Amino acid sequence: MRAVTIRAHGGPEQVRVDDVPRPRLQGPQDVIVATRAGALNHLDLFVLGGLPGVTHTFPWVMGGDGAGLVETVGEQVTRVKPGDRVLLNPGVSCGGCDFCLGGEQSLCDTYSLLGEHLPGTLAEAVRVPEANCYPVPDTVSWEEAAAYPLAFLTAWRLLATKAQLKAGETVFIWGIGGGVALAALAIAKLLGARTIVTSSSDAKLARAKTLGADACINHRAQDVVQEVRRVTDRKGAEVVVDSVGTKTWETSLKVIARSGRLVSCGATTGPQVTTDVRRMFWHQYTIMGSTMGNRREFEAIARLLARGRLRPVVDAVFPMEEARAAVERLARGEQFGKIVVRIA
């Protein structure tokens, strides 16, 4: 079958379309999904560049997000059948460790992600456990379904579960235009919160305004701390979403309201940060990490997608043959929304 692969770690020049063996059922609860569309995440750039402690066998199939038609199922599969339209939860858990049995699959002892630890979704077919398949109605396009899972699961857990964002609170979101940031904006508005977003692009800020952002800050041209204090009457934001890491961390700590919450879900500019613990304990901040989500959370976002309450922003759709160009666009940071690769 055809698949978008990398032949070695490096830059986008390593991305190509290859013929690779088609996956087969290995266990009684396995499902083979004929992929219709997949989507890129910043994680794909990390995988392309090589991740410490993660070994890949080349050619490696890229992609964590995907949606398609169920092709074949294992003998114990009961939730889906051939021909069903499904979107895929990218996180695969063992089901038997203490965390899985307690309903916290993203803390599983062997938690794995499609495209990072397991062959990915940018292929004509992918093998996943039955538990990772969720129905998607005809009212949702393949492109929307593929663009939805990873970003919205991540944003839902960090805002609804971890930060417990409440109506009327203010949430501050770095880097609007990326998948998680846009998902966080949509979820924050759904929960009744006020939103402050940043970008170095005035064009992206203007688009964010049309999606409901209450305040927009150009973090290259404006003083972020001063602007946040101005639009919140010097109070600050009750919740700060930081997926950037090194370059934004100290500023993030300066824009939190007293007794506010900072949730970290990434480190796109680096993992090493400086924290003034005096400010942290004096203002009684809560600092939390958040990764992906559990099955209950995925079920929640799948229902909201099916009901039309949440929808991803699709930046561009590339045919499989132009996957390298899609990765190059992501690497340049030009996108506003998710970059989708059409498989079939």
What's the structural blueprint in terms of helices and strands?
Layout: E1 2-6, E2 15-19, E3 30-39, H1 42-49, E4 60-61, E5 65-73, E6 85-88, E7 91-92, H2 98-101, E8 112-113, E9 125-129, E10 133-135, H3 142-147, H4 149-162, E11 170-173, H5 179-190, E12 194-199, H6 202-210, E13 215-218, H7 224-231, E14 237-242, H8 249-254, E15 256-264, H9 277-282, E16 286-289, H10 295-306, E17 314-319, H11 323-332, E18 338-342
Helix pairs in contact: 4-5, 4-10
Describe what this molecule looks like in 3D.
The chain is α/β, with parallel strands linked by helices. The chain folds into 2 domains: 2-148 and 312-342, Medium-chain alcohol dehydrogenases, catalytic domain (Quinone Oxidoreductase, Chain A, domain 1); 152-289, Rossmann fold, CATH 3.40.50. It has helices at residues 42-49, 98-101, 142-147, 149-162, 179-190, 202-210, 224-231, 249-254, 277-282, 295-306, 323-332; strands at 2-6, 15-19, 30-39, 60-61, 65-73, 85-88, 91-92, 112-113, 125-129, 133-135, 170-173, 194-199, 215-218, 237-242, 256-264, 286-289, 314-319, 338-342. The strands form 4 sheets. Strands 3, 5, 6, 9, 10, 17 and 18 form a 7-stranded mixed β-sheet that branches. It is globular, with a radius of gyration of 20 Å. The mean pLDDT is 97.
